[in-house]
Amino acid sequence: MTRIDPVTAAVIQGGLESIAIEMGHKLMRMSYSSIIRESEDFGAALTDADGLQMCECKMSTPLQSGPIPGYVRNIIKVLKERGDAVNPGDVIMHNDPYGGASHGPDVAFCVPVFLDDKLIGWSVTTAHHLDIGALSPGSCGIVDAVDTYAEGLQFKAIKVYERGIKNEAVWHILRANIRAQDLVVGDMEAQIESSADRRKRVSWNWSRIMG
After folding, report:
1. CB 3.0-4.6 Å disulfide test: which of 120, 126, 172, 207 passes with 108?
2. Which residues form the domain of 52?
3. How many distinct structural domains can be found in the chain?
4. In three state form, how does the secondary structure of the chain look?
5. Mean pLDDT, all residues of the chain
6. Tens digit of pLDDT for each residue in 98-127?
7. Assigned domain for 201 exists
């Protein structure tokens, strides 16, 4: 790897941090629910290809940003076990409490970032959703859940977009099992847009590091 001077490294780090902050602002402005827009119960961060976190949005809730490396590492592990490759244009949904998430209603959308066909990092947003299909309406009912199945729908490294093509079946399942479907799906789409829109800027900053 090309060595760079401390000043250049600081400039690149600042560039990456600004991307994460922009992700957070965009998610807050596009979200439908007040839990994201006003309570700021979300996370936004960039990691390297292995899931090591490089920066995060300063408005993020620590409980949301902190688990992001765990989300990414578990996604990599699950996809490898399935023999499923990570490709440009993929968007991966994940909310496994045993694989990074704090509980079922916290759903992450992870977007791989490529430079010259090489995976160099991940752009990730997480957010608490108001309903995820549990026994009780809303996400507060999960306090009585006896296991993760009672918390609602589980998504373990599910590609909602594959090579840029939307997996419509997943979205049909979501809408059929979530009570406030327009609100929740709207928030999820905001997460995807916030993450996916930053890919080109991450690639540009990373190309500066690589020389």
Report:
1. 126
2. 6-210
3. 1
4. CCCCCHHHHHHHHHHHHHHHHHHHHHHHHHCCCHHHHCCCCEEEEEEECCCCEEEECCCCCHHHHCCHHHHHHHHHHHHHHHCCCCCCCCEEEECCCCCCCCCCCEEEEEEEEEECCEEEEEEEEEEECCCCCCCCCCCHHHHHCCCHHHHCCCCCCEEEEECCEECHHHHHHHHHHCCCHHHHHHHHHHHHHHHHCCHHHHHHHHHHHHC
5. 87
6. 998 888 889 999 999 998 889 999 999 999
7. yes
